[in-house]
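Risk register update: the risk of archive-format incompatibility is retired. Evidence:
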Amino acid sequence: MEAVDGIKEFEGLISEAIAKRSEAFIWDISGDEVIRIPVKLEALNGFASRVVFTLDHRAKYYINDLIKGVGMLKFYIPAQQLLFISKIDIYQGTNLEIYYPEAFKKHDRRKDDRLEPLIPVHFLGNGFKKECYDISTGGFSFIMNNSEFKSVKYGKGQVIECEIQFPFKTVKVKAKIVNLIEIKPYQLERFPYGAKKVALMIEENDFYLESFNKFQKNMRKMLVDLL
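Archived output:
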């Protein structure tokens, strides 16, 4: 990681991300799950050495579980390949302000064949491609809007054939729907008319397990680099 002697580089990357409206995420690894929460990058305050974000509803729901130690959060901005850990200054409502990090890392894919953290893993099935919001050795879940859900007519206990698309490989699996969770209108900003969270348990599959373990191993390598 770069010490923030490289503060000008850090400010340059953040300014570029703001100008390009780049996606930003708070992230962590919990057990065998990669947690990935979107936040909106709003401003850079160079005078006060602060970065300002706005949280969406999903981020507000999860963020307390991601705050570590003395109020530390991990951030990733994919377009700039920027990873850093920062201490919270202000967290109120949807407003989040953080201190500049003590160090940061700009990941260079040309020099490192490790997987990028936070590249989405997708469910492919019934003509749909959906991002998996949580994924583990035993299963995964994704969200469909109500119109999509009605078209597939999924039911609890149903076994479906589908594919899981990792960054490096797509694996065919059979999975059992173990839970269907209703998301109320406006509970998530992206689903104003409500949605369904579909949770599935994967039938034993060595190819899936091998792919997931490779994915997780590389996530942990990146986490070690951050720390």
